[in-house]
């Protein structure tokens, strides 16, 4: 007679416990994997069926296969030990590999850097790369690029660490200049130079800050007395107006609508012209006859008219302190007439004298407008809304002005295809732009002399 009849309630009160196949257990971690070059082993766990064996795999076999270390194709690793790297300390120096060729040992590094292609930059950086193609890509010749790298070397250079090799100075500068010249999105810049997106963004800001710190004092400064005398002579030969030390102009740089104080950055004129809501910040600059900036004021909201931007600038502060005596700065009708600032007549029914004066002022203004046109044409990032944060944008724009001056001073060829046309806002200042009675008399005197000496207004006689 069967002592254990089969009934629905007949269950084994003490079932045999199954051993859990925990991948975190010590037994699992003690497994060792071998390849064909290792010595044979008698461990039955390593003699499991192949992936094409018709026999089903056991749960333990599946866990073993899933936990095998996989080859790493995207990162450079000095070894395959899945441990968190630790910094070397003087008490515990990093391991050293012996050099098989002799000559001592070399320090072993763990390079946790994603493997990206740098073929494009390696090609551009090659000595045999054509200079014309290099100029087309970076808006400057190799010699000018080398000079900039040399000037910034000590400021932007980084040291190698235990985790990675530092990016070379030339590549750092190239990332910044390429980004400014093309306005290419950081995603594409990173692929082009074989770097991470955040790394490229960081490099652009670091190099721009270095340009502002190192190169701006050398290439963007108000001229001294000797240079100012030469500038006056050149402007007088162009227009006949004496004592002109610079031509002032203000342009707008489009930005993404900020989160705070949006109305202050709203650009009404650009919105009406383009039929699209526009936000911007201003760049005010004074240029010499060759189109080199001698003074810049960057970052005021786009809703501010030119005369208000002027009053916020250091140029206005220097003039108020009497540092611009015996010097005229020429602007358009958006600026006020002052003792040191000449602007055209804005009244209706101009006389021949006034019309002739306005023509000569326009010739001086043409130098400033052409300079801003080359600035925006050479550095395309200024033509469209940028990804740079609003508080970081003045540093980037200042770097563009410095690089513009370097190219102008070194007579870098400007590609006509990059020509960009700037537009006046045509916003008249308050009180008809009259800030000084003596300035009115001085302007009338200059206009009379131009007509009297046959320099201006002769076409209407």
TrEMBL record:
The keyword Aminoacyl-tRNA synthetase does not apply. It is found in: Nucleus. The keyword Lyase does not apply. GO terms for cellular component: nucleus. Residues 1-109 are annotated as: Disordered. Keywords: Hydrolase, Metal-binding, Nuclease, Nucleus. Residues 248-405 form the DDE Tnp4 domain. Its cofactor is a divalent metal cation. Residues 67-77 have a biased composition (Basic and acidic residues). Residues 1-14 have a biased composition (Low complexity). InterPro entries: HARBI1-like (IPR045249), HARBI1_dom (IPR027806). It comes from the Eukaryota. Pfam families: DDE_Tnp_4. One of its GO terms (molecular function) is nuclease activity. Belongs to the HARBI1 family. This is Nuclease HARBI1. It comes from Cucumis melo var. makuwa (Oriental melon).
């Amino acid at each position: 007679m069967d002592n254990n009849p089969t009934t629905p309630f007949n269950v084994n009160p003490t079932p045999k416990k199954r051993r859990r196949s925990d991948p975190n257990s010590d037994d699992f971690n003690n497994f060792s994997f071998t390849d064909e070059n290792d010595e044979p082993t008698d461990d039955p766990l390593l003699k499991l069926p192949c992936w094409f064996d018709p026999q089903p795999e056991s749960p333990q076999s599946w866990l073993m296969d899933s936990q095998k270390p996989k080859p790493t194709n995207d990162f450079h690793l000095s070894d395959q030990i899945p441990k968190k790297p630790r910094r070397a300390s003087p008490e515990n120096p990093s391991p050293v590999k012996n050099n098989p060729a002799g000559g001592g040992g070399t320090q072993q590094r763990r390079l946790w850097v994603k493997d990206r292609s740098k073929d494009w930059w390696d090609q551009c950086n090659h000595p045999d790369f054509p200079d014309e193609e290099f100029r087309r890509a970076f808006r400057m010749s190799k010699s000018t690029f080398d000079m900039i790298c040399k000037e910034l070397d000590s400021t932007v250079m980084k040291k190698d660490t235990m985790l990675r090799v530092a990016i070379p100075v030339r590549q750092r500068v190239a990332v910044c200049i390429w980004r400014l010249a093309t306005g290419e999105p950081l995603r594409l810049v990173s692929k082009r130079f074989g770097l991470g997106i955040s790394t490229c963004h960081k490099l652009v800001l670091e190099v721009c800050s270095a340009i502002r710190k190192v190169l701006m004092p050398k290439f963007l400064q108000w001229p001294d007395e000797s240079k100012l005398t030469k500038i006056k002579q050149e402007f007088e030969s162009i227009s006949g107006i004496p004592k002109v030390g610079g031509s002032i102009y203000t342009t707008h740089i489009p930005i993404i609508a900020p989160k705070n104080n949006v109305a202050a950055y709203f650009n009404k004129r650009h919105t009406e012209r383009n039929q699209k809501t526009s936000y911007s910040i201003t760049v005010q600059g004074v240029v010499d006859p060759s189109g080199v900036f001698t003074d810049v004021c960057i970052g005021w909201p786009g809703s501010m008219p030119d005369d208000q931007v002027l009053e916020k600038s250091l140029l206005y502060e220097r003039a108020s302190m009497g540092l611009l005596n015996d010097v005229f700065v020429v602007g358009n009708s958006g600026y006020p007439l002052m003792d040191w600032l000449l602007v055209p007549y804005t009244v209706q029914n101009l006389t021949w004298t006034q019309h002739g004066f306005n023509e000569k002022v326009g010739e001086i203004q043409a130098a400033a407008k052409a300079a801003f046109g080359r600035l925006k044409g050479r550095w395309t990032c200024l033509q469209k809304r940028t990804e740079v944060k609003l508080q970081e944008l003045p540093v980037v724009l200042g770097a563009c002005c410095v690089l513009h001056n370097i190219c102008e001073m070194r007579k870098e060829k400007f590609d006509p295809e990059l020509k960009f046309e700037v537009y006046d806002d045509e916003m008249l200042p308050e009180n008809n732009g009259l800030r000084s009675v003596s300035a009115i008399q001085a302007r009338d005197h200059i206009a009379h002399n131009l007509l009297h000496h046959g320099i201006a207004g002769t076409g209407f006689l």
